[in-house]
Amino acid sequence: MFHTQSDVVFIKGLKVEAVIGVYEWERAITQPLLIDIALETDISQAAISDNVDDALNYKAVCDDVSEWCQAIKAKLLEHLAGQIADKLLEKYATHKVTLSIAKPTAIKQADAVGVQITRHAKAPSNDA
Ligand SMILES: Nc1nc2c(c(=O)[nH]1)N=C([C@H](O)[C@@H](O)CO)CN2
After folding, report:
1. Ligand 1 centroid from CA 101, angstroms
2. Given CA atoms 8, 95, 59, 100 in this order, what sign does their dihedral have?
3. Which ranges carry the Dihydroneopterin aldolase/epimerase domain (predicted)?
4. Would you say the CB of residue 9 lies under 6 angstroms from ligand 1?
5. CA–CA distance from 27 to each of 47, 76, 115 (Å)?
6. Which of 83, 72, 88, 84 is nearest to 20 (CA)?
7. Angle at CA 35, nearest 5°, toward 32 and 39?
8. Is the CB–ligand 1 distance for residue 103 below 6 Å?
9. Which of 11, 55, 86, 113 could pair with 37 in a Cys bridge, judged by C-beta atoms 3.0 to 4.6 Å apart?
10. CA distance 37 to 49
11. 22 lines ligand 1 (CB under 6 A)
12. Share of the chain residues as helix, strand and coil, in percent rounded to the nearest 5
């Protein structure tokens, strides 16, 4: 489908404590993650109705993403970001997700390190 609108629901600086990392010592602790999410969606119905049931609910997204990060216990940020983007596209009314996940305490000499990815919903197939 071709999307002409470019409305976005966003979340900035979502803080999650989770098991993350490739080294053995990292598997035994939790570390802070800072997550930014932009979900492209059509907000026009919610803008008219003023009803949260018509909106892509950012509180629900925050709760889900926190739970998924803690459950996945990924080694690489790349794996975690890919899994979360796929789940958001599957569960929510969004056709494009941009997600960045930072580890603010991983590298002493850096404010933060991390990854940013953009994923699109698969186009519906024409197979009957
Ligand atoms: N591109 C990546 N590089 C690294 C990652 C990662 O997830 N993606 N992870 C680590 C370690 O877990 C690191 O955070 C420990 O300081 C190293 N490089």
Report:
1. 12
2. negative
3. 9-119
4. no
5. 44, 12, 20
6. 72
7. 160
8. yes
9. 11
10. 24
11. yes
12. 35, 30, 35
Atom of ligand 1 nearest to the CA of 106: 16
| CA distances for 125 relative to 31, 48, 75, 128, angstroms | 41, 32, 33, 8
- Of 30, 31, 10, 21, the C-alpha closest to 99 is 10
pLDDT in tens, 10-53: 999 999 999 999 999 999 999 999 999 999 999 999 999 999 99
Spatial contact of 65 and 14, defined as CB atoms under 8 Å apart: yes
- CATH code assigned to 8-120: 3.30.1130.10
Q: What is the pTM of this model?
A: 0.94
User: Would you say 52 and 75 are in contact if contact means Cβ atoms under 8 Å apart?
Assistant: no
pLDDT the model gives residue 5: 65
